[in-house]
User: Fold this.
Amino acid sequence: MAFFLAVGLSFATASQAATLDKVRETSGLKLGFRDDAAPFSFADENGRAAGYSVALCAAIGGAVQASLELDQLAVEFVPVTAENRFAALADGRIDLLCGATTVTLQRRAEVDFSLQTFVTGASVLYRSGGPASFTELNGRKVGVRAGTTTDDGLRRALSEAGITAEVVAISSHEAGRDALEAEEIAAYFADRAILIMLARQAKNPERLVLSQRFFSFEPYALALRRGDSDFRLLVDRALVRLYRSKAIGKIYEASFGKARMSDLLRAMYTLQSFPD
Assistant:
């Protein structure tokens, strides 16, 4: 899917690295998105990329077009999965990863990251009438999205707590919620912001209970190829301009509705609103 962006914000760069050279030559920018990570990135009812991270990347596309002084820029959103997203960056299938991507030191050995775009943490969704605490999961099946930091964190938390539970790798967040509702698993683990959206969109949301406990700290950012400092600077400039304006509040509300913005997220925006 592709669309054309009108010239928006103007960001000048002294030099252009590999990604920007390719964009100038092709007048195209490829943005990777996961279709199963609402409200950050997903495919809407028309099959178009949507969500908080997608909106950030669309704004970055406008910044790229303005910086390169292109009459038109074809921005293509390319579907990726949790398993192949970093490989897609490395082999050039995408230029920027727009999703629910946690920054870790291990991942920074493979890719570079933009400024942080969101902060959340892993939590758990239970079924009403079933286990209602972490310790009650002993001997039960629990689900988690394969290929995520939550998968690693869950297994570590279970081991440290001495809880023996069967961890079931789930192919998508929606499939995890459905398995929970169908009583195939006793709990489903994911980042809290994703769990909130899953519960709201459930067939019977009143049967689902969201834990108040966090099992990890998950700082999100946009991933790009390593060593492409000029492109990363342009991405960061675009994010800073959003954070310093009212635009970020509108993007947040469009993605999360009337849910209150956390104090931690407000602080993240403020701390990254660097001067020019």
The two ends are 34 Å apart (CA to CA). The chain has two domains: 2-120+218-271, 122-210. Residues 2-120+218-271 form a domain with the D-Maltodextrin-Binding Protein; domain 2 fold (CATH 3.40.190.10). The longest helix spans residues 52-68.
